[in-house]
Every structure is written in structure tokens, then in C-alpha cells.
Amino acid sequence: MANPNPNPNEETNPFSFSDFPEDVQLCILSFLSPPEISTFACTSKRYVSLCRNDTKLWFAICDRRWGSKTQIKKWGNGKVTYKKLYKTLAEYENLIGFWRRSGQGKNVNSPPPLVFFEWGPSFVTGSRVSPSRTGTYEVVKAPFLWLSVMADGNPVSFLDPECRFELSDDLVEFGELENGLVPVNVSFMGKSHVVVEENMSFVYSNSPEGRKIGVRRVSSSGNLRGEEYGVAEDVSGSPGSLPDRLMSEIYQYFANRTSPGAERASRRQRKREKERQGRRKWEPEHFVKIVNCSPTPSRPLQGLWKGICDDKTLEFYLVAYDDIGGIACRKVGDSSHLFSDYSPVFWTSNTTFIESPFSPEEEYIYDSRIHLWPPAAADSCLRWVENEVVSCILHINSSYDLVIPNLAGTSADPRHVEGRIWKYRNGTFGFGFLRNNYIIDLKHIAQNGCILDTMDLC
Fold first, then answer.
1. Kind and range of the H or E element at 265?
2. Which of 185, 198, 340, 398 shows its CA 20 to 30 Å from the CA of 87?
């Protein structure tokens, strides 16, 4: 019998992309980025309509990337096109995680400096995170900022200065400013710096026809571009972002030098600006992203941690590795205390751990110190046996010699600055100094994108 395929190496009936069912095609295309989708659409006319299909292709792209984190169909009340939604969600995604306020607040009772952004059903929520005052590891998580989109795809953001507002599932339908919500613009200045400032051009009407949420057009380099939607533009207003303000000052400077009546116009402009500032409900805040907020195998100590201090209060710590291999730890503290926003704790330039077995001297240094735990944890012997087994030790220096110059040089006693990190087998660690008789044990503030041990506000 003759061989039906005389050349077995020759491929027969090769499949092309068009041979796949449409659902398979959409699944494959959902892995591509928008530029790749555009390139693919140019390969054949038959694919143009598929690549333009918003409800099928662009929903599939959004759902694959963010479907496990948020409810794609609820954004914009289900009326926004998914192609527009993709661009907004890609920008919002950069917010997710921890941020630290840059600069001191203007008053003593300024809000906590640590902020955490996370996905909601149809919005992104920003929460202020601070240590509780219960003497435990509990953390206060107070939502204060919400970002979403309107039906036409424009971003919209609201802020609650008092952190008391309880948000319903749909931010866009809310729109009630009687609760003290402040419309704001959230603008990126690079990927790791964001500015939150009041949107002074926001318009809200109580009439049935005008109960719409509006944002002004933002001419900054930020992510919230916002086309006009129910907005009365105030041309005499102050620029919203730092780049706008800088350009305005430059133009004003040259106008004053070239125009005879420019000085009078400038005085009127400054007067209007002062009047507008008097109506502000919110002063701009700058935040810097904490990029490395979790430990890695090569950097086991890095990230955000929390620990009970010698005064029985909970404090937050940020441990960071530098480019030359050193480690530094700072408090991310309660802003009601002077100099506590970002105060140094310890540092070391040598990250070589001492492995077990340890010398008798190191054993004594560890065994002779008490662990600062909450009362419930201090009574648990099981917790001690399972979790606080030391796997390795690291020598550190107190940051006293950084804050107080020449302290190390003027004292012959190294106990003033020398300390230890004890890394435990469960991945956490504790630290202490030779001048003290206690160890501060640190735990994770967040894990797998969720804040641990949160407590409700009273």
C-alpha cells in the first residue's frame, strides 16, 4: 500500500490565527499590550474590526489584567468604554501599595504620614495607616481618598479630611458633597511622586438635571487629565500642579518687565489668589512611593515593619538597603510627635550574618534581654518556641552617632552605639542595643497586598 504521506517531514494543513474560534482569539489577544494590538490590527483587514471591538477585546484585556482585583463592569457605572478604562486603570495601578508623605505638615496634628492604596469594587481607595494606641500589634486603617471614573472615562477623585466617610459600592453615583467630601486632583510627577490637591474648579448642582460629578481639565503632567464635564472653568484661578505654578511664575516675571500695566494686573492676580486660598478646604499633600515595602530572599530585612517599643507603644519602621549593600532603618512615625516622621533608628554597612552555632558571648547577649511584646503574646510560651528561634545574627550601629555628631568618637564605650539584629526562622526579626536590656520584635505591616491586624475606628 502506498504511503499517503510520502514526505513525513512536510507539514500538512497548517493552522492560521483566523482558524481559531473567536473566544480563543480574544483569549490570545488579551495578553497583548495596546501598542501590540495596534500592530496586530495592521497585519490584516479582517482583524481590524476584532481589534476595535470594545465589549469583547478590550473587556478581555481589562479583565485579564485587573479582573481578579476589581469588578471591571462596575467602573463608570458600566457605561465607560473599556478602551478608555484600560488607560485609567493602568495609571491607577501605579498607586497600589504604600506611600509616605513628603515634608512636614503645617500643624502639629497633621495626618499620619503613611498611606496605603488598594483596589475596590469600582474605585481605588487610599487609606491613612497608623499604629494603634492599644499596646498591641493592631493597626488603624482609615480610608480618606477615592479614585474612580465617570461614564465618559474621565477620572474623578474625592477626599474625606476627617476619615469618617463610609463609601458605598459606587463612588460615581454618590456625588453628595453634603458629607464633607472634597473634590481633588491626584497628579503623578513621575512614577514615584504624587500630589493630592483640591480641585477648585469642581462644579456641583443640586438640580435633578445637574447632579453630575465634574472635574476640570488638568494641564499638569499628572495622570488625571480629565476632559471638561459639568465644569465652569475659572481662568483666574491658580495653577494646580507644581509645573503649572512654575510656568505661571516665569510668564508673570517676563510680563512684569515688558508690560507697563503688568504690575497692577499682578497685584489683582495675587489678590484673587488669596481669596481663592481662603476658600480652600484642603492644602496640597505630596507623597513618595515606598517601592521596596516587602522582604525578598536576597534582602530579608527590607520593607515596612511594626514593633512594640520600650514605652509599650506600637511604632512603624522602614528598613531599606542602599546601592552599596548597607542597611538603614527609620521610623515612619506619628506626626503628632516632633521629628518622628522619618527618624533614624539603626544602620550597618556590613550585611554579613553570623550563622549558628553562636558564641557564648552572643548567646548571653540574646538570652539576657527581654522581648517587648503585647501582654497576650508575652504569656504565650508556644509563640516563643515556634517563632522566635534565632537563625542568624547581624551587627548594627545605633543611629545616635548619626544624629549626634562625634558621639562614637568621644566615648570609649561601644555599648552606646553597638547593637544586634536577631533574624528568626519564621522570616521576622528583632533588634536591640547593648546599652538596653530589651529586644524590639518586628512583624509585617502587610502581607500579600493586605494590611494585617487592622482595627476599626471608634
1. helix 262-278
2. 198
